[in-house]
Hints:
The chain is an alpha+beta fold. It is about 40% helix and about 20% strand. It has four domains: about 15-70, no CATH class; about 80-170, Roll (Pdz3 Domain), CATH 2.30.42; about 175-395, 2-enoyl-CoA Hydratase, Chain A, domain 1, CATH 3.90.226; about 405-490, no CATH class. The protein has helices spanning about 1-20, 25-35, 45-55, 70-80, 105-110, 135-140, 195-210, 225-235, 280-290, 345, 350-355, 405-410, 415-430, 435-440, 445-460, 465-490, 490-500, 505-515, 515-525; strands at about 65, 80-85, 85-90, 95-100, 115-120, 125, 145-155, 155-165, 165-170, 175-180, 185-190, 215, 240-250, 250-255, 270-275, 295-300, 305-310, 320-325, 370-375, 380-385, 390-395.
Amino acid sequence: MKKFLLLAVIFSALVPLAQTLDPARKIASVEKIIETFYVDPVDTTKVVDEGIRAMLKKLDPHSSYTNAEETKEVTEPLEGKFSGIGIQFQMLNDTLYVIQTIAGGPSERVGIQPGDRILVSNDSLISGVKRPISSVMKLLRGPKGTVANLKVLRGKETIDFRVVRDDIPIYSVDASYMVDPEIGYIRLSRFAEDTPKEMYEAIEKLNKQGMKKLIIDLQDNSGGYLQSATTLAEMLLPFDAPIVSTGSDRLGRSTYTATAPSTLFDGPVQILVNQFSASASEILAGAVQDNDRGIIVGRRTFGKGLVQRPFPFPDGSMVRLTVARYYTPSGRCIQKPYHDGDDDAYRDDLINRYKHGEYLSEDSIVLPDSLKYYTLKLHRPVYGGGGILPDKFVPIDTTGYSTYYRDLMAKGVYNRIVTNYIDANRKLLKKSYKTIGDFISGFEISQKLIDDMVKLGEEEGVPYDEKGFATSKETILTILKGLIARDLFDQEAYWRVANHLDPVYLKAVEIFTTPGAYETTLSHQ
C-alpha cells in the first residue's frame, strides 16, 4: 500500500508539472514518465528517436532526424572518404569477389588483385556464409590504422594478407572523357567536399585535350553541399554573375555571386538532367540557364529548393532542419508544392508525373503565367514552382525495356554473369584489350555468354522469353559490355559504353554536332 501511494505521489507530481511546462520540457517529462512507469522494459533511446522523427514529419518533407549510424551513412559520401581496405567487390554465391582495388589503396599496396576471393577477415567468415552486404562492409571497414587480417583465395592457393586500413576516397566524377575531338563529357554523381577539386582537374584535363564544347551530366545526381555547387558554377560563369540566393523570414536573404576573376571554361555548355536531379544539381542548372550561359537538356528536375542546416548532437545523431529556400538568379523558387506533414503525396510526385505522361511528352507540363520568369541576358521565359524545366526536352526511351529485361535486372543476373565471365577470362581479356578504346571498338558479346546468362536467369526463376529478349537485346548486350568494361578498367569505362543507350546524352551530342543547333536552342523564346 505504501509503494502504491509513493508511485501515486510521483505520478501526480509529474503530470501537473507537464501541463504547465513549455513544449520542450513537456517532452522531457513524458520521456521520464515512460522510463519510470511503463509496464515493460523499454529502450528510451529508440522512443526518443521516434518521437523526434514524428515531430519533424509534421514539417516539410526534407527536415529529418538520423541516429548516429544513419548520420554516418548520409554524411560519409559527401565528406569524400571513409576508412577501409580499398576494394570494389561483388558477392556471388555467398563469395566475395574483388572487382577492383582502389589505385594506391591499402589492398593494392599489399598485392591483393582483381579476381581474388576474400574468405575471412580477422577470424570472421565472409565467404561461404549468408551475410548481408551491411555486415560484410562492417568487417572490411574500420578506423584508419587498424588492421584487417585477410585470408584470400587466388585460384587454388590460399594467401594471408595483413591490410592496414586507410582513408579511401569517394569520387564525385564518375567519368570525364572526349566524345570527339571537340566535345568533352563529365558525369557528376554528387556535390561533395572534394567535388570542386575533382571538377577542376577533369575540366583542365579535357581542356588540354582540345575541348571546345562541354557536356556536364547531372542525371540521377541528388545533390549535396551548396558550397560545392556555387564553386562549380564559378568555373563556368563570368565574374560577379549571380549564382543562387537563399532566403527566409528569420534569416533574411543572401546572394551568392561568382567571385573567380575568370572562368575555367568559356565555351558552349550543356547540362543534362532528369527527374532525379535535385538540390545542388538544380542550383547549378538554374544558374547556367538563368545567366544564358548554356542549355539544359533532358527532363524536368526533382524540385528540391529547400535549404537544410545540420544540427549535430554529441551522440553522433543529427537533425537537418529546413531554414531557407533556394532562388535561382531570375528569382525562381524551384521547390515543388508540398503540404506540411503529407510525405506520402510528396513521395508519389514522380510516379504521378509518369502517370500523367510527363516523361514522354513535353506538352503534358502546363504551368501558369504566375510562375513565369525571364533569363537575365536573352530574356527567355523560364518557370519556377517545381524544378528546372529543360531548354530541350528529351522523352524517356522505353523501346528497349521488357519484363524479361527487368526481371533479369531484379535478380542480379547481369552482374553475376559478368563476374563469372571476368573470373574465367580475365587474363585473356587483359592481354587482348590494353585500353578502353581497344575494348569498345573490338569486344563483342559472344553467343556463349548470352546462353550462360539465359541459363542463370532460368536458375533464378526467370524463364527465357524469346520476344522479350528480342525487344531488349541491344539494351542487354550494352549493359553486359558496360559491366565487363567497368570490371576490367574502371567506372568511366562503363559510362563510355552505356551512354550510347541514353537518349539525353545522344541528344546533347547531336546538338553539338549539328551546325547552329546549340545557338538556336539557346536563343529559343
